[in-house]
Structures are given as structure tokens and as C-alpha cells.
Design a protein that fits this description.
Layout lengths: L1 E9 L2 E7 L4 E6 L5 H11 L15 E8 L3 H9 L10 E8 L4 E5 L2 E3 L1 H8 L3 E4 L1 H6 L3 H12 L1 H28 L2 H21 L5 H13 L1 H16 L5 H14 L5 H30 L4 H21 L3 H67 L6 E13 L2 E10 L7 E2 H4 L2 H15 L7 E5 L7 H15 L4 E4 L3 H4 L4 E10 L2 E9 L2 H13 L4 H21 L1
Parallel strand pairs: 3-13, 3-14, 8-12, 12-13
Antiparallel strand pairs: 1-2, 1-4, 4-5, 5-6, 6-7, 9-10, 10-11, 14-15
Helix pairs in contact: 5-13, 6-13, 7-12, 7-13, 8-12, 9-11, 10-11, 12-13, 13-15, 15-16, 18-19
Length: 562
């Protein structure tokens, strides 16, 4: 509930202190007295966008402070956001704008932002004015009104629809990402698959090319190698004159004198060792000689294998190591593409499931809306009858969309006819300003029990109406004030008569320029004088009697309501 509004140097308002009633707080004044500026200050405190032009001329800064009692949910939110309050303590929004355009915001004495005020401001007060009447022409507003009237089940269903729609969008984004560059991805996959098959079929081993190249050189020189081996073997072991035979003779000779001295013994030993090494070498040469036969078939096989390896190296990197690295990369690409194929199938299935869930949730919301539109029509038409539109008809027409969106499978448009003989048509085409104001008020009253417990601030809701209609609108505002806190800026006495607290704005010429002063009027006599001024421009006897009649009528209606 609103407690107070403090204004300093805002626009033409030098300084003002407003204490709000628990029921209806009314603001009146001559045309041009600053009622719109008062609402501007109210909106400024709730985070409305503003510049340095809101600062009063010759002032350093404008400051507006709004004090209120938060409900339980808002109390918890403020504490959770770091703007702690003690139970029963007044909450405050304080906003300042300097003449240089620098802005600051404090919530419960702690620094905040205008964006934060806008975010939670509607939970403190909802401004309903001429802008709201224009919003009434928008189908999006009609959809919002029907959903609010349908209550928590529809709002919860709408939330589920929005979540289901996001799931569809997520699945569509994943599908689009997977399908992006399909042709290029397919070509890369085919290249990688071919390379991998090619490399795996060759089954090249590390160092295999070097080994085969060495063997090929050996076979290319087989005859030369065999001749050399035969010569070497003959020199080492073929007869007694060979190296082996000569070393045997030397070994025997030295062995016969080895006992004479240490040197002779070492010589005999060395001669024996050399004979043994020559014998071993001759044996190896003999074995190699046996193997040193030219094999044209083997040479052909080796050359063919080296051709395969050379082709791989030319194609995939220049070495067997590079070929294996290329194979590993190709294997990863093939696996990724094949996994992508599986992902496509999975995402397609998820997308189908998400669309089915969206359609299911949207159908449930449609049924809740269909039931609500019938009840809303009856409720709004009943309110319009009390607002001097007894023959008016209203219908919330549901228009199916090609597919469900984040707010459901249909749009809603309010149709209106003021008289029985008229065809129901869209509001924008048939409703006058006065009819829009009354229809808006009817919706506000009907929805009053289905919104957060914020105050309702009416900015000239009485635009375009007068006479008996104004009396009816005043009664509805008064009735609304019995169940909700109402703040109303009005130029009609029939509305102002319902004030629990009444303020008058006046424009004054002062030495520093024009200023707006605001003062509270108390007591029935003072209120009658203001109402008389509103009725006829000056408080003469007839106007005063009319004003007193208005006030008596309000008391009678209030006592009847009690």
C-alpha cells in the first residue's frame, strides 16, 4: 500500500508532500494546474525514463521519494535482492536527477537502478491512463486481459506453453546447426572416408619403406655381393695358405714356447683368438654366400610395395609418420560425421516430441481461454451497464494462428458494439474516447481481484465522459476503492466526490517563475467548494448545493455498500 510521495524541484513543483489514503486519493485542479506533472513525478519514482528536463528551473536537482508498505511477496523479493527491511518497516524508492543529467536511484537507502524500479514498480502501483486506453486497442492487450481473467490456471498454462515453445526453438536451432553446410560436410566426409580406406588397405608399418629400400639395393647387387663373398671366404678359409690356416700355424708355433715367458704366452693366446675370429667370420661369409642368390620375384614384390608406400607418402604427407597422422585425422572426421548423422536423427526426434508437447500445452491453454472469454464477456457487460452503457456488447474473439507461438495458438481481439442494432466490430473502428475509458475501467474492475496487490493510479480515466455517465464512473471508482487502494487524477466532480483524501493543485506565479502548489482539503465544506468549482467554474450557491448533493449521495451509496 502506498504511504507517501515526496516531490522536490520536479518540473514546476517546488516541494510537495502527499500522504495517501487507504481507499481513494483524489487530485483535482484547474486545467493546466499540473496534474499531468504530478503523475510524471509518480512515474519517475517508479523508474520511468527521464532526462534533465524534469529538473525545476534554477534548481540543482529533482528528487522524488515514494514510501509504501510492501506485501509479503514484495517484502521477500526486496530482502532477497539485498534491499533488506525489518517487518513493518516502510519501503522507499528514492530517485534523483541532476541538472547535468546524472541520475541516481536508492531502494530502502541502498543504491539501485531505474531498470530495477521498472521491473518491480508494477508490484507497487499500476498507472492506468490515456496511454492504457490506447493499449486497449492492441490485440496483445486483449490476450493479456483474457489470461489475467482466466487466473492462475491460465497463467501457469501460458508459462508451460512458453517453456514448450523454447524447447521447440532450441531443437530447431540444433537442427539448423547440424544441417548448416550439409553439402560441404558430405564432401569432406567422403574425402576422409576414401583416405582412411586407402591408408588402412595399405597397412603401412613404421620404417617399412627404409627396410624395403635396403633389401632392394641388396638384390640389385646380388651377383657383385656373391663374388665378393666367395673371394673373402677363399682368403680366409679355403686352404692352408689362407688367413685361417696361417693363423693356425702361428698359434701352434707360439703355443710351443708359451711357457717360457709371459709375453710369449700372450702372443700364443692372441694368435688363437685371431684364428677363432677368422673362423667365425668365414662361417658367416659362407652363410651369407648361400643366401646371396638373385631372386627376381622378390625384387618385383619389393618394388611393387615401395610404389604403394611412395604413393601414400606423396598423397598424405611425405612420410609414413605423416600418413598415419592423416589417417588419425580422417578417422576422427568420419566418426564425427557418422555421429552427426545419429545426432540428426536424435534431434529430429526431439524436435517432433517438442512440437507435440507445444501443441498439447497450447490446446490446454486454448480451452482455458475459451471458457474465460465467455465469463469475461458477461462480467464486462455487467460493469458497462453500471457505467451507462447498458446496451453495450463485448466479445473476445479467438483467432487461430497457423502454429502455436510462445503465448499460445491464438490471438484474441475484443469486439464492441455500443447499441443493440450494431454489428460487433474491433474496438479501434467503433469505440469513442468515452467508451474506451469506460471499457478500460470495466476491465480494471473485473480484473481487480486477479492482479498483484499494487495500488491503481488512474490518470484521467474520465476522459470523454460527463453527466450521468460521470456519476456512474465515480461510483465504480468508489466501489473499487473499497477493495483496492486507488489514486485518481480527475477533472470531474462526480469522481472527486469519492475521495477519502483530496488534494488540489494550483499554478502560481512566483518571483522565480511559475510554480505548482499542492494542498490537501479537509472537511465537507472545503470539499464542497472544490467540487462546486469543478462543476461550474466558481463556488456559487447552486454549484455548492449540487456539490453537497454529490457528497450526500456518496455517503448514501457507501452506507448501502456497508
Amino acid at each position: 500500500m502506498l504511504r507517501r510521495l515526496e516531490i522536490e524541484n520536479y518540473g514546476l513543483i517546488d516541494r510537495a508532500h502527499i500522504a495517501f489514503a487507504g481507499g481513494a486519493t483524489m487530485f483535482t485542479g484547474e486545467t493546466g494546474s499540473g496534474k499531468t506533472m504530478l503523475l510524471g513525478a509518480f512515474g519517475f519514482a517508479l523508474g520511468a525514463r527521464a532526462g534533465s528536463d524534469v529538473v525545476r528551473r534554477n534548481a540543482a536537482r529533482a528528487v522524488v521519494t515514494l514510501g509504501f508498505d510492501p506485501d509479503e511477496a514484495l517484502f521477500a523479493r526486496l530482502n532477497a535482492d539485498g534491499f533488506e527491511l525489518e517487518p513493518g518497516e516502510e519501503a522507499t524508492f528514492a530517485r534523483e536527477m541532476s541538472a547535468s543529467g546524472k541520475s541516481s536511484v536508492r531502494v530502502n537507502g541502498r543504491a539501485a537502478t531505474a531498470g530495477y524500479l521498472r521491473e518491480i514498480g508494477t508490484r507497487v502501483a499500476q498507472i492506468v491512463g490515456q496511454h492504457e486506453a490506447q493499449r486497449l486497442l492492441s490485440p496483445s492487450y486483449h490476450l493479456e486481459a483474457v489470461d489475467r481473467f482466466a487466473g492462475d490456471p491460465a497463467l501457469e498454462a501460458k508459462s508451460r506453453v512458453a517453456q514448450a515453445y523454447e524447447h521447440v526453438r532450441d531443437a530447431e536451432r540444433r537442427m539448423a546447426a547440424l544441417q548448416a553446410g550439409d553439402r560441404l560436410a558430405q564432401e569432406r566426409y567422403e574425402d576422409a572416408r576414401f583416405a582412411l580406406d586407402d591408408i588402412e588397405a595399405a597397412a603401412a608399418l613404421e620404417g617399412e619403406d627404409a627396410q624395403l629400400d635396403e633389401r632392394r639395393r641388396y638384390l640389385d647387387h646380388a651377383e657383385r655381393i656373391a663374388a665378393a663373398l666367395r673371394g673373402a671366404h677363399a682368403a680366409l678359409a679355403d686352404d692352408d695358405a689362407s688367413a685361417g690356416g696361417s693363423l693356425g700355424v702361428a698359434s701352434v708355433a707360439l703355443g710351443g714356447i708359451a711357457e717360457i715367458s709371459q709375453d710369449l704366452r700372450e702372443m700364443a693366446t692372441q694368435a688363437g683368438a685371431l684364428q677363432s675370429e677368422v673362423s667365425e667370420l668365414a662361417t658367416r661369409i659362407a652363410r651369407e654366400l648361400d643366401a646371396a642368390e638373385s631372386d627376381p620375384a622378390e625384387l618385383e614384390r619389393i618394388n611393387a610395395r615401395l610404389d604403394v608406400l611412395d604413393r601414400l607418402k606423396r598423397r598424405y604427407g611425405g612420410s609414413i609418420e605423416a600418413v598415419h597422422a592423416h589417417a588419425a585425422a580422417a578417422r576422427d572426421m568420419v566418426a564425427a560425421f557418422e555421429a552427426r548423422d545419429r545426432d540428426l536423427q536424435s534431434v529430429a526426434a526431439n524436435l517432433d516430441a517438442a512440437k507435440a508437447a507445444l501443441e498439447r500445452e497450447a490446446r490446454a491453454l486454448t480451452e482455458l481461454r475459451r471458457a474465460a472469454t465467455a465469463r469475461l464477456r458477461v462480467a464486462v457487460e455487467a460493469e458497462l451497464a453500471d457505467l451507462a452503457l447498458a446496451n453495450a456488447r463485448v466479445e473476445a474473439q479467438m483467432i487461430a494462428r497457423p502454429s502455436a507461438g510462445p503465448d499460445g495458438a491464438e490471438s484474441i481481439e475484443l469486439l464492441f458494439a455500443a447499441d443493440p442494432g450494431e454489428v460487433l466490430r474491433p474496438l479501434a473502428k467503433v469505440a469513442s474516447g468515452g467508451e474506451l475509458s469506460r471499457l478500460l475501467l470495466a476491465l480494471v474492475v473485473v480484473l481487480a481481484g486477479r492482479r498483484e496487490s499494487s495500488a491503481l493510479v488512474f490518470d484521467e480515466i474520465d476522459a470523454g465522459i460527463g453527466g450521468a455517465t460521470a456519476t456512474a464512473v465515480g461510483a465504480r471508482i468508489g466501489g473499487l476503492a473499497r477493495c483496492a487502494q486507488v489514486v485518481c487524477v480527475t477533472h470531474l466532480a462526480q469522481l472527486a466526490a469519492w475521495a477519502d483524501r483530496h488534494y488540489v493543485l494550483e499554478k502560481r506565479d512566483e518571483r522565480e517563475g511559475v510554480a505548482i502548489a499542492l494542498h490537501e482539503i479537509e472537511g465537507e465544506s472545503a470539499r464542497a467548494v472544490e467540487l462546486a468549482r469543478m462543476l461550474s467554474g466558481e463556488p456559487h450557491a447552486i454549484a455548492l448545493e449540487h456539490a453537497r448533493t454529490l457528497l450526500r449521495g456518496v455517503r448514501v451509496m457507501e452506507s448501502g455498500a456497508l
